[in-house]
Amino acid sequence: MVQRTMSACWGTSIMRCSRRWCVFLAVAALASTACARGFQLKKFSTSEALFTASVAEFQKKKWDNAVTGFEKLTLDLSARDTLLPLSHWYLAQAHENRQEHVLAATSFSRLAESFPDDSLADDALLAAGDSYVRIWKNPELDPQYGTLAQAQFRTLIGVYPDSPRRKDAEAALLALDEQYASKDYLNGLFYVRRGAFDSSIIYFKSVVKDYPNTDHARLALLRMVEVYRRPQMNYKEEAAETCTTLKTAYAGDKDVVKTCAVEADSVAKVVKPEKAATDSGASVRTPR
Fold first, then answer.
1. Angle between the 144-159 and 166-194 helix axes, to the nearest 10 degrees?
2. Which CATH topology does 182-272 take?
3. Measured in whole angstroms, how far is the alpha carbon of residue 285 from the centre of its chain?
4. At CA 142, angle to CA 139 and CA 146, rounded to 5?
5. Which pTM does this prediction carry?
């Protein structure tokens, strides 16, 4: 086909086509030939044949062909066909490899919802949550996909409590809590920079209350101590109480020791002179 095209182009004086035009025709002919030999759904007379071919395309990392094949299978196969949940699984994986995280999560979720008794159901819920997590990378952005991810992980834990994927789901939930806590923590820092200390305390307290198992809870408590000690606030009792909480929850933590040592030093400076006077037997004059 290519040779005939080139001969027709270069050998015909009437057409007088340029060399560039002939090269274009040659490339077009090659592309046409490649398409004719490519992955075509009409070549497969049975669903089993299409499934086998689609798996082969998936293994060769030809994600577009895999999506095409498995998408058709998810539409054509009956609900009782054992290939249907596998087709959803491979379709979701192919979408994920094309960085189509929402489509991947949707396919994983459909598998878990349609086939809750299938051995892939808990894996699909974990994978769906992971796909949503990949979208919500910045805690300061709308947490919509973080919320959707939480729903998948919590469903896995609630419906499949004995699943080997449970620990992965719990770890993923804790990581999401860190992101949510980070969002409120950053808001608190923003108000500190603006000098709106009361507002910053509200956000820091929210971190401690809503996400107590995160590292941001510790950071929020440390920032609360610093804000309470600011001259504009001068809340000494609140700072001392917060330090007590920190020492109880994070005993030995170097940041806690450093931050709360200031409070201990200030107390020592007040107590030591009076103690020294008492120990030396000196009388203390009482004002009339």
1. 150
2. 1.25.40
3. 67
4. 65
5. 0.73
